[in-house]
């Protein structure tokens, strides 16, 4: 699209110029005349070869520019965001630490969608010079990198907000012998300790130097064992809620000292008030506790799990009794495998967003976590982001509309992202939309142990993943970077899963039938073929990881996929030994597999690598 920007700002930032170029807009002297001005809402009018674009913020200008493609004469668009803050939180501390240039690219995509905030979730991937073990060998950011990202985001109308941990989720820092002085229990800091208070002071001081915002997220979630470790030994038992309130008060004072307005995940208040420790009991907290909560601490209600709008509505109302400015955070479902599951995200996010709109929640966040190694690549998270943005600006996120906008903003067909859930839930499995994550447990489970073989008997995985491999091979060919390499990875993942998916089942059947010819065929041909495809997957994954992340962190996936190959090799040796009568039985195959996915009474997946590969402790 050719435009002549009649009143182009003289100080138009390089960031906006790059965004314009990525949108395919050509600024020239003989294009359609474009006039822009600051106003009260995003308003676009196209008439008589002139486009007038009014916007109320820089992020709205960026979104407005992305709406121009395909605009026809004598049309107009008016959009006013439902939420004052539309933000994305990206976990940059559980394996994958995205390269700064990649985060800049993501920021530009966010701007075209209309986002005005980004949080970086950094457990210990920000600098803390006073603590050499903080972020040791974790590939974190330097102060200069964070300052540069902060400045870059600001030029796109996006506020970069730090998201740190001031109570729990510090396992990688606290597991060192040298840092045990800060440890209460598990991954929880020892509260009421002068050394811990000094640590927290240093955290706030460092973060203050890196970010220009006056907002900070201080974490404080999932500290279920608070006060039950060293604190218990030193002070005796104390009600966890009292410890929590005292610690929150300390954090509020530190935030005030360093000119921050703090927010925190809300779950600990609800867990401590619940008889079962359940965040989602949906019961009012006693007025006695409510009166003790600091007014300066904003609550963030996070919920990735429900599909019923009434549940969200009730939860929001309960939160708003505690804090009328409660923010909401939904989940992008990128944390249970190498796949970002749009179908699962969409099913749970649409009712949540509707509930937020109806209850006048003013700030919403979309979170992307990196649980268990940050397996899903950062370029796989854009379509959920697009859906949140479309709801915010139009009150509608029909998949057809989201897909059309995705094509404008990201220059990519949405179809391959809409189909990613098929890696998790094959049609023959007849599963509801749920958290089953076959892409992960089929990849990693041992072919002899077969801990999940009882669950996948009739799933027809070989045919299913073979078809997926062909589909993503085509998307790899059709797409441009950064998506082409991502689809190459999915293509290879599907090839590996096609070979490995039913391999354990076939081994078990041939063993039970004592069909040694078939067993030899598996050991000498099928297993080596599978090892070859797994090694190809590892190499492509490394290429993808190095392109998008700091290198540290990939050693986890080297070890895991290397382990898959090693165990396949060991299985082949055992099978051959059995066929040669060198061993009389294969112990693992003498045991009947038990179903795991529904063992607790509700359908779930297997999310942690160590739960998938062995029944032994790792």
Topology:
Blueprint (H helix, E strand, L loop, with lengths): L1 E4 L8 H9 L3 E2 L4 E7 L3 E6 L2 E6 L2 H9 L8 E5 L5 E7 L8 H14 L3 E5 L21 H12 L4 E5 L7 H4 L8 E3 L2 E2 L4 H17 L4 E3 L12 H6 L4 H18 L3 E5 L1 H7 L13 H4 L7 E5 L6 H14 L4 E5 L10 H17 L4 E6 L2 H4 L7 H13 L4 H12 L4 H4 L19 H7 L16 H18 L4 H18 L2 H10 L3 H33 L6 H25 L29 H5 L5
Parallel strand pairs: 1-2, 1-3, 3-5, 7-8, 7-16, 8-9, 12-13, 13-14, 14-15, 15-16
Antiparallel strand pairs: 4-5, 4-6, 10-11
Structure description:
The protein has 618 residues and is of the alpha/beta class. It contains 23 helices and 16 strands. The protein has helices at 14-22, 58-66, 100-113, 143-154, 171-174, 194-210, 230-235, 240-257, 267-273, 287-290, 309-322, 342-358, 371-374, 382-394, 399-410, 415-418, 438-444, 461-478, 483-500, 503-512, 516-548, 555-579, 609-613, and strands at 2-5, 26-27, 32-38, 42-47, 50-55, 75-79, 85-91, 117-121, 159-163, 183-185, 188-189, 215-217, 261-265, 298-302, 327-331, 363-368. The strands form three sheets. It has an eight-stranded parallel β-sheet. A hairpin with a 2-residue loop joins β10 and β11. The chain is globular and about 85 Å long.
